[in-house]
Design brief:
This protein has about 400 residues and is of the alpha+beta class. The protein is built from 6 helices and 19 strands. The protein folds into 2 domains: about 220 residues, HIT-like (HIT family, subunit A, 2-Layer Sandwich); about 160 residues, HIT-like (HIT family, subunit A). The strands form 4 sheets. Strands 2-3-4-8-10-12-11-16-17-15-14-13 form a 12-stranded antiparallel sheet, with helices on both faces. It has a 3-stranded antiparallel sheet with strand order 7-6-9, with no helix packed on it. Strands 1-5 form a two-stranded antiparallel ribbon. Pathway: Carbohydrate metabolism; galactose metabolism.
Length: about 400
Amino acid sequence: MTQSADLPAATLGAGVVKRSARLADGRDLFYYDDPGTALPAERAIDARELAPRPETATMRRDVLTGDWISVAASRQSRVVMPPADLDPLAPQTPTNPSELPSAYDVAVFENRSPSFGPALDVAVGDAPAAIDPASGLEDLAAPGLGRSRTSVGRCEVVCFSPDRVGSFGSLSVTRARTVIEAWADRTAALSALPGVRQVFVFENRGAEIGVTLPHPHGQIYAYPYVTPRTQLLLQSIEREGADLFARIIEFEAAGPRVLLEGEHWIAYVPFAARWPVEVHMAPRRHVADFAELSSAEKDELAPLYLRLLRGVDALYGTPTPYIAAWHQAPVDVARDSARLHLQLTSPRRGADKLKFLAGSEAAMGAWIGDIPPEQSADRLGEALATIPEVLS
């Protein structure tokens, strides 16, 4: 007989209820219940017998670039395209010992084979401190060959739905709003962990991107450093001015590449798009991360983002592979200048064609665009015109 228990609960924005639990090996699990959910307060207990969690990975510094490379060998054992009856993100059944012991609306749990964590810079609760006492993160930029550090941080999986197929774009407005509330809650919690410098929310969609699970889900990474892409952004802000994002939005709003607009959000194909399909979405007000969004901004984002994703899928009539990357300001720098924004990119340059990163892009970082951004915006606009306003 399956054991169940009442879980500690907290009411978040929009009537979303958060319930906190643990998996059998001690990993955190959080349920985010839709407002008015039909789920009971009790949830099944994870009774699996699991092996101990792998040790925290080690990251090594590339002296040529200054980048830190996390070497997480445990990721080699992760599940790849399992059959539907063994979906690890579906609720557990007698024949499927999945990661989710109970029925859920939205669920977030610590990755079993993380690239960062579970160790932190300082021990907190069940999360140990980095094993190497010399692994402090304050000197990550120091020079020297052969430098390594413990990959402190956290990696979490965000299950958008118990359904076995789909993506964020297939959710209802209510469910999308619940996911956004979960993103905000986890961003705040992860940003407070010792040693975490930046929190990244993202969704990989499609086998062409490298997705290994078709179940609708995304991920959240909490890094022990400011990522290379964000470091370049901070350099641009220093060069262009602290009001860079405000000026970008003003520039794009007056141009020909706007796709969707609301009171609080705007979506557009950027002036210098790299990818065949590339869309940016940003709040009109300066907001550093999801945790700083107002209720009104979250409410508008849910239907607007759903319509955008459905329009991207309507480009060719079949699901479009993409990376939906939500860039957030670092935890401790540039909070008043680096703005939360989405960069959605797809390598799909035709119904049956993909853009591959070859010599110039992959080796030199020198991009060559295949489709003029204005043409891409026109095509996306035509696709979006076939998508009605998302109301439910």
